[in-house]
Every structure is written in structure tokens, then in C-alpha cells.
Amino acid sequence: MGQKESVAEVALPEPQQRAQHELKYTLPNQAARGITDWLRARLLSDPEYPEGWVSSIYYDSHDLRLLREKVNSDFTKSKVRLRWYLAPRHHTDETAAFLEVKRKIGGRRFKHRVATACSGSELSKTPLQDPTLIKLLGLLRTPTSWIPTNLHPFMEIRFHRLRFLEPATGARVSIDTDIRPLRVNPAMLPMSNPFPLFHAVVEAKGPFRQPPGLLSDVLAFGCRRESFSKYERCYRKVTQQGIF
Predict the structure, then answer these.
(1) Which of 122, 127, 210, 244 is 20 to 30 A from 107, comparing alpha carbons?
(2) 125 and 148 in contact (C-beta within 8 Å)?
(3) Measured between alpha carbons, how far is 146 from 165 in angstroms, rounded to an integer?
(4) What's the 3-state SS for 69-82?
(5) What is the CATH number of the domain that holds 176?
(6) Is 199 exposed, middle or buried (0-12, 13-18, 19+ CB in 10 A)?
(7) What is the rounded (10 degree) CA torsion for 228, 25, 43, 47?
(8) In a domain, 7, yes or no
(9) CA-to-CA distance for 156 and 236, rounded, in angstroms?
(10) Domain residue limits at 152
């Protein structure tokens, strides 16, 4: 997956936050309208962010160490990304972007997030090889976070998200469509394929150990419960590796 590079780890205490569980169900994009209508009829619309576009710049080492953690199904997996949220019908926004580090340890997930002074509108125009994006990572290197060193902005991924709340358990449910690798850092991967993936994904997140009962019905729409990484699938889309 590219040039070899030694990556040192900065191992620091985990942020003090409640462990969350995450379930994912994939479905063909053409089935997304039907399940979206079904979710709207049975769940509560998220009161704060019911709909919008999400854009993320994923960081990785030159040898794509964080991507390989996912591909190899390591017990501990990490993601580092710069994320901003866009208005429902527009692809730019002036709201602040957030740096996030996510760690998945077995079935549990932990996330640490810090706000930046950069807007989505500004970041969407910033080349991925711009050193400013590397300097931003300094905001995450605190005594309560964990991130590897030698990371670089690698790929920007964009998708449309609808958010819901499951009233019985308080689980947060979302459906993501039009998932696409918008651009890639040419210094790390000199190719591009900014077209959407074949699949959409339904996600449920919360403190539950068993899936909310209502979600078992999504299988009738052709959904399949599986591990799904937008980062991995978009990498495969760009490099034409396998089914996306």
C-alpha cells in the first residue's frame, strides 16, 4: 500500500468517556429511498442535526498503517480525521471543523474530538498536501488523547447523512448515501475516482449490547449486517480493488 515508513506511537491515557457500541448494515444505493421512508415513519428525527452533508479528511502514514489496521481486522483500530458538516443543500459551510481520533477496541469504540478555527469552506479549498493540515494535528496531542505520529492528510470523503433517534433505547441511527472519495493527496496516491460507492450504510450507535429490536427489520430491505469502513471502501474504489 505504498512507501514503507516507521510510525511511532504516542500512547497516552484514553479520554474519559462512556464506551459506545456500533452496528452497521449495508444496502445497495438503489434501495436507500425505501428504507429511508421506513426509518422516518418509525424513528424520531434528530432534534439538532437531522440532515446534512459530511466531509472528512482522513490522515494516515505513507505506508497506510491505519488503513491496514482495518484491512487486517486488528483488535485495536484507529482513525484520525478532520471533519466538517455542510448545509443540506449546499457543499460548503462556514461552521468550524473538528479533529477526531477514534479507537475501536474489540466491540467498543472511543472518540476524542477538538474544535479547530478552520471552516469547512476554507478546508474544501485547501490542497491535501498543504502543511497547515499537518500542523492542525497538534490540537489532538494532549495528555488525554492518543494518536500516532508521522500522519499526513490522505483522502477526503464526502457523504449525505440523515439522523434519527430510536425512542426505546436512545440509540442514534443514521443512513449515509452518496459516499464518495472526493479527492486524494497526490503525493501519497497519484490517482483519483470521485464517484459514489455502490453501497449506502445504516449505522446505529449507543450504549446497547444487543441491537435495538426495530433494526432487525432492516434485513427485509436487503440490508446486510457487516463491518463497513468508508475509508477502506473509498480506498478500494480509488485503486479499483474489489467490490465497493
Answers:
(1) 244
(2) no
(3) 30
(4) HHHCCCCEEEEEEE
(5) 3.20.100.30
(6) buried
(7) 10
(8) no
(9) 14
(10) 16-239
Nearest to 191 by CA among 237, 231, 126, 132: 237
- Distance in angstroms (rounded) separating the CA atoms of residues 32 and 26: 10
Task: Write out pLDDT tens, residues 40-79.
Answer: 998 999 988 899 999 999 999 999 999 999 888 777 788 9
* Residues composing the chain: 244
Separation of alpha carbons 243 and 60, rounded Å: 22
Does residue 218 sit in helix, strand or coil?
Answer: helix
Is the pLDDT at 112 greater than 80, yes or no?
yes
Is 152 a member of any domain? yes
Please tell me the distance from the alpha carbon of residue 86 to that of residue 55, in angstroms, as a whole number.
Answer: 8
All three cell numbers of 127: 490542497
pTM: 0.84
Q: Which residues pair with 79 in a beta bridge?
A: 102
Percent helix, percent strand, percent coil in the chain, to nearest 5? 20, 40, 40
6: in domain: no
Asked whether residue 1 is domain-assigned, the answer is no
Q: Which amino acid is at 98?
A: F
Number of domains in the chain: 1
> In the structure grid, which three cell numbers stand for residue 77, read together?
483500530
